[in-house]
Write a structure and sequence with these properties.
The chain has a two-stranded antiparallel sheet. It has a single domain, classed as Ribosomal protein S7/S5 (Ribosomal Protein S7, Orthogonal Bundle). It is mainly α. The chain is globular. The mean pLDDT is 84. A hairpin with a 2-residue loop joins β1 and β2. It contains seven helices and two strands.
């Protein structure tokens, strides 16, 4: 069974041993479970396909901080069929540019963009100090997906560029370890801050 009825996922493996257990690549035709496993602990890792997690991140209704996003009603109610088409178009563009399986390219980009360390603030004697901590594997995947979506949205917002093109460019830049990728630059910044606070 091929994902989107086009691309094989059975032989694909992650080279990062820490992420192997947390990336689900079971054969699926339509990566859309509708949240039927939400009551299971760590369902995102064990039950939800990695492409579905990407689609779910695309349906988050805007972000408040530094990133430019159109604010919606605040409910996570994106059109799943539209997001399905966006991801499929992005993967088609990746396949045309690289002549490789786009799911494999996306997996490699996800591994490249996953930060290993981050900053946690501790309070000691009324003063706050930054302390470097190691990221758990599931959080590493969540952060890299979030950074990719932020980068794609910020490049397509208030421009004529389509979100599918921006998402494809973001995944390809992360795959090539290009600093133009938002996910790669955020990872480098997080790890630099963690290294500086030792």
């Amino acid at each position: 069974m091929k994902i989107f009825d086009k691309w094989e996922t059975e032989g694909l493996k992650t080279t990062d041993p820490g992420l192997k257990r947390y990336i689900c690549l079971k054969p699926l035709l339509v990566p859309r479970t509708g949240g039927r496993n939400t009551k299971i602990q760590f369902h995102r890792s064990t039950k939800t396909h990695i492409i579905e997690r990407l689609m779910n991140k695309l349906m988050v209704p805007g972000h408040i901080k530094k990133h430019k996003h159109k604010r919606s009603s605040g409910h996570c109610t994106g059109k799943s069929t539209k997001v399905y088409q966006v991801v499929q178009d992005a993967f088609n563009k990746i396949e045309k540019q690289t002549n490789k399986n786009p799911v494999e390219v996306f997996l490699k980009a996800l591994e490249n963009a996953a930060p290993r360390e981050e900053i946690n603030t501790i309070e000691y004697g009324g003063a706050r100090y930054p302390q470097p901590v190691e990221c758990s594997p599931q959080r590493r995947i969540d952060l890299s997906l979030r950074f990719m979506i932020w980068g794609a949205y910020s490049k397509s917002f208030k421009t004529n560029k389509k979100i599918a093109d921006c998402l494809a460019n973001e995944i390809l830049a992360a795959y090539k370890l290009d600093i133009k990728s938002n996910a790669i630059s955020k990872k480098i910044e997080l790890e630099r801050q963690a290294d500086a606070s030792r």
